[in-house]
Amino acid sequence: MDKRVNPFHYRSTFFACVVVVGVLLSGCIESPGHENTATAKASPPACVKGEPMAQTTLYFGLNRPHGPAISTTEWQSFVDNDVTGRFKDGLTVIDAKGQWLGNDGHVAKESSRALVLIHKNDKETAIEDVRSRYKKQFAQESVMRVDAGVCVDF
Hints:
Elements: H1 7-26, E1 51-61, H2 72-83, E2 92-101, E3 107-119, H3 124-137, E4 144-152
Antiparallel strand pairs: 1-3, 1-4, 2-3
């Protein structure tokens, strides 16, 4: 019995494996037409229990570029007047501490608030209004937004 490997058979098997692996991995590459954006809706998950909803977390820095930090009273007034009416089903505010490495090599730290909103993916305008109002009212460059699909059960 000849134990030599047929080069043609080896190459064709190798090529077939490369094609199969390529096809399997092609689903892992994000196509340019489907880029993630800050305003993209979160995909609803398949829930074993509960209802599929979206969770949006907004991160608000409390330092102003010029002047004093945004006070607890100013923050609460913003939440009461600009947020709660848009999210009548409720919201959660979490005290946070942001930190990053500046271009100058120094660590920058900032007190912040995380606002957690659970909704039925129908609050796009309200979310963007809150972000815009905060940036304008408190002279902020940005309000970070993170969206995720979640399962909610009460």
